[in-house]
Amino acid sequence: MLSGGGSTLLNLCRAIRDPERAAPLSGVEIAHVISSRADARGIGIARDADLPVSVVPRREFNDGAAFSAAITAVLEPLDVDLVVLAGFLSLWRIPARFRWRVLNIHPALLPKFGGRGMFGLHVHRAVLAAGERESGCTVHLADDEYDHGPIVAQERVPVLADDTPESLAARVQEAERVLYPRVLQQVADHGVGWLDQFHF
Ligand code: GRF
Q1: CA 88 to CA 78: how far, in whole Å?
Q2: Can 106 be counted among the known catalytic residues?
Q3: How far is the C-alpha of 49 from the C-alpha of 6, rounded, in Å?
Q4: Contacts with 197 (C-beta within 8 Å, 6 or more apart), sequence order
Q5: Cystine design at 114: which of 3, 76, 141, 147 (Cβ 3.0–4.6 Å)?
Q6: For residue 42, how many other CB atoms are within 10 A of its CB?
Q7: Average pLDDT of the segment spanning 119-134
Q8: pLDDT at position 200, please?
């Protein structure tokens, strides 16, 4: 599920297609792509990869419950094992069927620098403003709060003295490109039940 640029989706498509990549992905199929915005660039990336796309525009729903129900209605007939958030900027109230079966990646070391409004360069600006010496990315099980839920894996990168939000973003993104496929490969190898060790 995405809302924006789709670079996370593109990376996963490449990881599935190219076994020579640093973090390839096998035994994984992307069944469907859901966008919460009609103008998300990620829709084009999905179509280029011949993936079926559903657009569920957040702005067409007055309340989060109706929006969430519409997302769930798209997912239910698909029989998917896992929902992968890939730059999804809205809140989906996860129904019981998908509890602990939704992963998100966040471009910081959660629980720091997450939550509503903490996306894109906002995250890296906040990390620099706080004088952090390291940042990174976090893959976590999503729950009903933004960037919240049990942590599955993190990758750290240094924050350099002359970093700008953009340079830090690029370094974190490189780490994301490896971390997300690695976690998804674990799920593919061991089954979705592998995720249950991270929540109690
Ligand atoms: C990624 O940096 C990810 O950490 C965060 O949103 C960004 C998505 O980028 N959740 P894109 O929309 O996939 O290009």
Answers
A1: 19
A2: yes
A3: 12
A4: none
A5: 147
A6: 24
A7: 97
A8: 82
